[in-house]
Amino acid sequence: MSQKTESPNPAGPPDLSNSYLGSLVVGAVIVLALVFLGSSIAGNPLTSFRMRGSGPLPWMYPWILAAGQTIGNGLTEFSGNSLNPAEDSIYWASLMSIFLSGILAPTLTLRLMGRARAPILRGLYIVSLVMSTTFAIAVVPSGFKAYRARLAIREAQAIQGNKDEIINELSVIAKKVYEYRILPKVHGGGDGTTHGYALPTSLSSTHWATYKLTETPVGIGVLAASNLYQDAGVTVTIQPDGRLQGWTYVGLFQ
Which of 10, 90, 178, 228 is the most buried (most CB within 10 A)? Predict the structure, then answer.
């Protein structure tokens, strides 16, 4: 009678292998060395990584570095000076931030999850978990806010585009009204007046707006109601000499 023997169940997944951990550590050391050596070679003080007293946040959040550089470029151009290349420290700090918080820390966290039993591995797991969580907490809300900001910018640009197109069409209408005023009646004009003038169909309603003319003591009043945005519009008066005066913007055009 043969006795069946079964191998005992393993206690759990093996610890992080020495070769894998060694590769990650070596990679981190190389990046850190490149950061500090690159800063020294470029002649930039290592304290420049603190971004003038901003603390350690730029190391965790590379977009802070990008925002600072963008603001600096805007101020430089506004002052009339030529743009200078970004400091190497900014490039290296951004690289290290992405590598540590976006690659190394999440990798260690997932690799060590449920496997870190040695004290050193537990400490490494806690550090990587804190870095990954901090990075994720900042990335997710920032990404959502950036998405909403892009939508708001696109909407504002679309509204401004509609407004600009209406202004252009109002200029065309003012020209047509002025031409009608100065033309004699034998040529289809008003012979010095605007009585009897009616907008052609191509101008009374367009893709951008619907226009309505009214006689006023000082000229022709025009109401332009946007066809794309409800309650948005423009009112203006066409003077006898064809000039547009008394601009008033309604709704989203304000």
Answer: 90
Judged against a pLDDT cut of 90, whether residue 225 lies above it is answered with yes
- Token look-up 């690159």 returns 38
Residue found by looking up tokens 């009616």 in the block: 198
pTM of this structure:
0.56
Is the pLDDT reported for residue 194 higher than 80? yes
Task: Give the pLDDT confidence of 149-163 residue by residue, as tens digits.
Answer: 899 999 999 999 999
Give Cα separations from 182 to 169, 190, 191, 199, 245 (angstroms).
20, 7, 6, 16, 19
CA distance linking residue 113 with residue 122, whole number of Å: 9
Cα torsion 200, 204, 205, 210 to 10°: value is 180
Give the pair of three-digit tokens for residue 27.
């990679």
Mind giving me the DSSP string for 178-243? HHHHHS-GGGTS-SS--TT----HHHHB-SSEEEEEEEETTEEEEEEEESSSTT-EEEEEE-TTS-
Is 108 in contact with 124 (CB distance < 8 Å)? yes
The residue whose two tokens read 């409800």 is: 230
**Residue 145 vs residues 98, 135, 138, 139, 148: alpha-carbon distances, Å:** 20, 16, 11, 10, 5
- Span 225-231, average pLDDT: 94
Could you tell me if 180 and 197 are in contact, meaning their C-beta atoms sit under 8 angstroms apart? yes
Q: In what order do the strands lie in the sheet with 219-226?
A: 209-216, 219-226, 233-238, 244-250
Question: Do 68 and 61 form a contact (C-beta atoms < 8 A)?
Answer: no
